[in-house]
Amino acid sequence: MSVAKTLTSWYSINKRHLPWRETKDPYKIWLSEIILQQTQIKQGLSYYEAFTDKYPTVFDLANATESDVLKLWQGLGYYSRARNLHATAKYIVNNLNGKFPNTYEKLLKLKGIGDYTASAIASICFNEHTAVLDGNVYRFLSRYYGIDTPINTSKGFKIFKALAQDILDKDNPAEHNQAIMDFGSRQCSPTNPDCMFCLFNQTCVAFREDKILKLPQKIKAKKPVNKYFNFLVFVSDSSSTILEKRQENGIWKNLYQFPLIETKKTASLNTFQSALKNNSLTSNLDFKVSLYNEIEIVHKLSHQHLHTKFWIITTKKLPVPGIPIKNIKDYAVPVLIEKFIEEFNF
Asked: Gene3D superfamilies per the record (predicted)?
């Protein structure tokens, strides 16, 4: 039996019943694929259900405000996915009359849609013969064929894409693509793969050569940069505080945060006093300051580690217009800020 037929046979027995597998609606397939990037199914499922409940069609999503979309996305991270999701929904509604492109090449032109997502939508919704390539597929192919070319290189992409395309079941590309992803996720897992009871253990190169945990290969990423964030949590006598919308490009673009002072290293109360004197919000303000967390919170992102302290600034009157503290949970904030809000409880 071919690799493709073995995979689809396994899938017919072991298929997980998930809501996006019960539809061919490109909007819902697209939504699920964007949510599940960098996200496990058990976490992504609740977000998928929340989005399809609030925005059942691409028209509903396009008519939403970006701030509402970001708020619903809160906690998933990689917020550029949500911004691109909203922008693409608006483009599809305004420029394509609400109809998704029906080919891989056309889908690839949409904002936030790369090779993997375009392949998934094209094959699942429109039966196009185009193979998906995600982390699970990379892992299975690398181990089964014994390929040690790093997967996070352009050369690696070309090799694995061609191989995935070559073994694709042309009679049923949708079922095949979902089968190989599920097999990689559940059977050929990153750690502790179930090799002894694997359908491919007689022909798998990595199993035969004891290389299972050495594959796939990746070029190591650069070490994360350390940054030192100091958030100013204003609390006025009228129970108001200050939130600022991040305008600059970055992972938190268009999310809200407390006013921020960035320092070159961890700040003590004595050293932070001078920073407050030079800050436009506190330089001429009568206030008291206290440190909420003596031990800094280290928020780890893929490219940087944020060493974070929250400074409570109590004052009679805010230096700029603020928001009622009772409304603070209406704003889309990074998960770092969200956790503080829940713990501090104002």
From this structure: Helix-hairpin-Helix base-excision DNA repair enzymes (C-terminal), Hypothetical protein, domain 2, Nucleoside Triphosphate Pyrophosphohydrolase
Q: Is 248 a catalytic residue?
A: no
Q: Does 219 fall in a domain?
A: no
Q: Which domain holds residue 237?
A: 225-344
Picking from 61, 64, 43, the residue whose alpha carbon sits closest to that of residue 52 is 61
E strands within the chain? 225-236, 240-241, 244-245, 256-257, 260-263, 287-291, 297-300, 304-315, 323-324
Tell me: the pLDDT tens digits for 116-168?
Answer: 999 999 999 999 999 999 999 999 999 999 999 999 999 999 999 999 999 99
Q: Quote the number of domains for the chain.
A: 2
C-alpha gyration radius of the chain: 24
Give the end of a domain, one of 184, 214, 244.
Answer: 214
- Indicate the pTM of the whole model: 0.84
Residue tagged active-site, from 33, 128, 209, 342: 33
The stretch 199-203 carries a mean pLDDT of 93
Last residue of a domain, which of 187, 214, 241? 214
